[in-house]
Specification:
Blueprint lengths: L12 E4 L5 H13 L4 E6 L10 H17 L2 E5 L22 E8 L10 E10 L2 E7 L10 E10 L17 H10 L1 H8 L9 E5 L11 E4 L3 H9 L7 H5 L9 H28 L3 E5 L6 H7 L3 H5 L4 E7 L6 H13 L6 E6 L7 H13 L4 E4 L2 E2 L25 H13 L4 E2 L3 E4 L2 H7 L8 H14 L4 E4 L1 H7 E4 L2 E4 L2 E3 L1 E4 L4 E2 L1 H12 L3 E4 L6 E2 L2 E2 L2 H6 L3 E2 L5 H9 L2 E4 L9 E7 L3 E8 L25 E4 L6 E6 L4 E4 L4 E3 L2 E5 L7 E7 L27 E5 L3 E5 L3 E4 L10 H12 L23 E11 L7 E6 L5 E4 L2 E2 L7 E2 L1 E9 L7 E11 L9 E5 L2 E3 L2 E3 L4 E2 L16 E3 L8
Parallel strand pairs: 1-2, 1-14, 2-3, 3-8, 8-10, 10-11, 11-12, 12-13, 16-17, 16-21, 21-23, 22-24, 23-26, 39-48
Antiparallel strand pairs: 4-7, 4-9, 5-6, 5-7, 15-28, 18-19, 19-20, 24-25, 27-30, 28-29, 29-35, 30-34, 31-32, 31-35, 33-34, 36-49, 36-50, 37-46, 38-39, 39-45, 40-44, 40-46, 41-42, 41-45, 43-44, 47-48
Length: 902
């Protein structure tokens, strides 16, 4: 437990975003090992310059597998060049028959003659304030009546996009297209590395597959076989009801055609991209992991994948994506961990920390990881560890969780913490006795593109309420339930999971299979509760049967959750000193034959329906110094607390037995977490952990004064606004280097660089490109001359002739700064002068040039208002950027003399 196995540790996205070299790959793997990481996903990202899926690519994969073996780590595969998964970097979709398809719909003045290729259907419609009053199919010769319009639907194929290397995304609804993706990608890995599958190479990550990527806005997902499959399944033609899919209907807020269409899309998507690849992975001893696109809200899922839960059935390690520190997407985690529990999937992955930025602190890593652990997620895929920061790569969603970050040497502290929690929670079964019927199908029947429905928010509100009241639950997807659910005595089973009570949120339609199952469950003595109104629809059609069956269920409001649900499903209370549930606290309970484990965390902020606008971690301050836990435990169990920071076990003081279990104090400071172990047998444990400080008896405020500091690397002055002289023309006004880079490429008649550019590996480089003579002039002020030699840090220094104040700068490479792509050149301190200094860089610029990027002066100096001033030797507490270190990237130590007696 002190140093857990690598399988419990984080597996970052290792962004392969440059020219791959064996020595550099091995060195970075060793660096990740020192950071406490357990493995890595070998993930092609923006900037890759080694041909994707080439023999050289596979040789680099082999190198990393070998180094993982040496370091006792694990090398995970990733199935795409960038994302979303499916096109294989355009290698699959070069063949048009595998390209994404869609229905484009438009209001037109007349139907064209000839009607054109790909016309699927034409209608005459009448709209009233955006509501569909009527529609009927039409011919080109039909005439419009008053207030009528023509609506055309045309099947189209996706247009080439630079993001897909001038190809398109995949038709993920088409099994043949997915099978080709598997042949191009997965089979090539199998041919070379199958002997490592299941051990050194545990699995493969799929990233954001969907059925809407990079298509116009006025479209519906489609595939060639959809009409035939739809008619076969539902007995009518969806082509005859297309207007209902894009407009809300006058005086009718539900459409069976919408429900059936979205169900059909979801089935095609899951059976093609989910099942085909999941079955292949199962057969070849690989874990299929990753996440689908837009798995959070009801609207987003409907738009991109139908529903995420059905896709998870085919994943050995289902996963989610958590972007930014401000997303509390509890339902995303709940959907994943519900299916994982129901299908016995031990590991649940999160791609996490993306879009958090360079200033995201360790407490943020802990806080985001903690609440996901409490909701059943146990495998962290950190986003992102860059192979290089060269050129465009550095703008690919920083920060880099790798050697480029100044805290890399300390990151094992974070990894050890989460590894100990994962190891402690590995055994036992999750205890969740409440099943909540997922409302996605009711949403489908009401949703049309562009509208926001209240169900989107009530879905979030319900989860927030249950989690805040510590009534933990799983979601039940009705389609999965139709195949895997059954009733056993007073429990309802979904595959491997069982429940004592069911809660039906307010929904518009319910499946006949669900209703019959719940009716049987209630007749066996099971508890079924429902909220709001009784559904008007059965399988999407108006029916009185739900009203009849609901008579056996009990109505409940959120204010009655504690009173009505607790007797059947409650196991834990986390209360404040007034006996109220601490709603910002979350928990995970697991049970074995002779033990239970309880993890809980204080999110330190109240949950809200605007789940993507939560406070930044540093602003979450809610604390509960008098909190207590009431745990429904057998009275003869022994209680212990494990400290994840050390791995040591401690006894728990002040435990009292009650008729509801046991009760004990559990103070919760901001962002606190606790891990308790209850055992039938006594365990060896140390004395109780010290209680968090609740009140200071004496406090001394340190004077607001500067204190001595030491920096662990040179300070930096950013130079990013050069003047440019092109082909001996006049000096241009200073402009940002990236804008200048785009302007120069426009002059050459080539496409600009950017985050969506064609990958370097896929671009054919011109042998005799048109060139521009380019001189860059950077000016900066020295108010104080440096007393020591300095350095110039820049990318590709070999392509420049460099002078400072008309004196050449040495071309000798002295190492790197921050990233190995940013090289350093020495600058003699005698080249600087008081006042304005002029740095010139001369080069030939062409389409093959890596690109203009920021450059930096490094040295023992301070920086104020973009001028070099005296070195920083002391600082006040607070913002360093206003005290001479606006661009400093390293660590810093304060030298503080504490008052006597402290």
């Amino acid at each position: 437990m002190i140093t857990p196995h690598d399988k419990y540790r984080g597996i970052p996205f290792w962004a392969w975003n440059g020219k791959l070299e064996e020595q550099e790959l091995r060195e970075q793997i060793r660096s990740m090992k020192k950071m406490g990481l357990g493995g890595f996903f070998m993930h092609s990202r923006i900037g890759l310059d080694t041909p994707y899926l080439s023999e050289e690519w596979f040789r680099m994969i082999e190198v990393c597998i070998d180094e993982a073996r040496r370091q006792k780590m694990r090398a995970w595969l990733y199935d795409e060049d960038r994302w979303p998964s499916g096109a294989a970097g355009g290698l699959v979709t070069k063949d048009e028959k595998y390209r994404i398809r869609f229905l484009e719909y438009n209001i037109v003045q007349s139907i064209p003659k000839p009607v054109g290729k790909g016309l699927q259907a034409a209608f005459i419609i009448e709209l009233d304030s955006g509501l569909l009053v009527s529609y009927r199919p039409c011919q080109a010769s039909d005439k419009l009546r008053e207030n009528e319009q023509f609506l055309l639907f045309q099947e189209k194929t996706g247009s080439p996009q630079s993001w897909f290397n001038d190809q398109t995304y995949l038709d993920t609804l088409n099994p043949e297209a997915v099978e080709q993706f598997v042949r191009v990608t997965h089979e090539e890995y199998r041919k070379r590395f199958s002997s490592t599958f299941g051990n050194l190479v545990p699995g493969i990550f799929t990233d954001e597959p969907n059925f809407i990527s990079h298509v116009p806005g006025n479209t519906l997902p489609w595939t060639g076989k959809l009409p035939a499959e739809f008619r076969k399944k539902y007995g009518y033609a969806i082509e005859e009801h297309l207007p209902e899919l894009v407009y809300p209907i006058y005086n009718q807020d539900f459409s069976k055609a919408r429900l059936d269409y979205r169900n059909m899309l979801t089935e095609l998507f899951c059976n093609a991209f989910g099942k085909i690849i999941g079955d292949w992975c199962e057969k070849n001893n690989l874990l299929y992991t990753g996440h689908v696109l837009c798995e959070d809200t009801l609207a987003n899922q409907t738009y991109a994948v139908g529903t995420a839960m059905r896709f998870y059935e085919f994943m050995q390690v289902p996963g989610i994506d958590l972007l930014t520190e401000r997303w509390f997407i509890f339902n995303t985690a709940k959907q994943c961990t519900s299916v994982a529990r129901q299908f016995g999937r031990k590991w649940r992955l999160t791609e996490t920390y993306g879009c958090t930025g360079w200033d995201f602190p360790f407490m943020g890593h802990k806080a985001m990881g903690d609440w996901q652990v409490a909701l059943g997620i146990n495998l962290r895929c950190q986003h992102l560890a860059w192979y290089t920061m060269a050129a465009e790569a550095k703008r690919d969603y920083p920060a880099s969780i790798s050697y480029q970050s100044p805290w890399a040497d300390e990151y094992s502290y974070v990894e050890d913490y989460f590894a100990r929690i994962a190891a402690a929670l590995e055994k036992g079964e999750e205890v969740r006795d409440l099943l909540v019927i997922h409302p996605i199908e009711s949403f489908w029947g009401r949703h049309v593109p562009g509208n926001t429905l209240p169900e989107n928010f009530s879905f979030i509100q319900l989860s927030n309420e249950l989690l805040g009241q510590h009534l933990d639950f799983d979601f039940g997807d009705e389609e999965l339930m139709s195949r895997y659910a059954s009733v056993r005595k007073k429990r309802i089973m979904i595959n491997k999971a069982s429940y004592r009570a069911v809660l039906i949120p307010e929904i518009r339609t319910i499946r006949a299979s669900t209703l019959e199952l719940l009716h049987q469950f209630a007749n066996n003595g099971g508890k079924v509760f429902y909220m709001g109104r009784v559904p008007q629809y059965l399988d999407g059609e108006e029916s009185l049967i739900p009203k009849e069956k609901y008579a056996d269920f009990r109505h409940v409001s959120n204010l009655e959750f504690d009173h009505l649900l607790s007797p059947h499903v409650r196991h834990v209370r986390i209360q404040d000193h007034d006996g109220l549930e601490i709603t910002p606290a979350l928990y995970l309970l697991k049970k074995g034959s002779d033990f239970q484990t309880l993890f809980l965390c204080n999110t330190s902020c109240y949950f809200q329906t605007e789940q993507m606008k939560m406070p930044m971690v540093r602003d979450r301050q809610l604390a509960y110094p008098k909190a207590k836990v009431i745990w429904k435990l057998p009275k003869h169990y022994h209680l212990y607390q494990m400290d994840p920071h050390t791995g040591k076990l401690h006894s728990v003081p002040q435990v009292t037995a009650t008729d509801k279990g046991i009760s004990f104090p559990c103070p919760l400071e901001p962002l606190a977490s606790r891990l308790f172990i209850a055992s039938r047998k006594p365990l060896n444990a140390k004395a109780p952990l010290p209680r968090p400080v609740q009140q200071l008896k004496n406090a001394s405020v340190l004077p607001d004064q500067s204190r001595p500091v030491s920096l662990d690397e040179p300070n930096a002055l950013l130079l990013d606004m050069p003047q440019a002289k092109i082909n001996n023309g006049a000096w241009q006004e200073a402009t940002h280097c990236l804008r200048l880079d785009s302007d120069l490429r426009a002059m050459l008649g080539v496409r600009p660089r950017g985050g969506s550019m064609v990958q370097p590996w896929c671009r054919s480089k011109s042998k005799n490109p048109k060139q521009l003579d380019l001189t860059l002039k950077y000016e900066f002020v020295c108010k104080v001359l440096p007393k020591q030699d300095c350095q110039l840090a820049l990318e590709c220094p070999e392509q420049y002739e460099i002078t400072l104040n008309n004196s050449p700068i040495s071309a000798k490479d002295t190492g790197y700064w921050c990233d190995r792509s940013i090289r350093t050149l020495p600058i003699d301190r005698r080249l600087f002068k008081t006042g304005t200094n002029q740095l010139l860089l001369k080069s030939k610029f062409d389409e093959n040039t890596a690109g203009l990027e920021n450059i930096f002066l490094l040295g023992d100096f301070g920086v104020k208002d973009y001028a070099i001033v005296s070195p920083v030797k002391s600082l006040k507490f607070g913002d360093w950027t206003k005290q001479g270190l606006p661009f400093y990237t390293g660590n810093l130590i304060y030298d503080i003399a504490l008052p006597e007696g402290v």
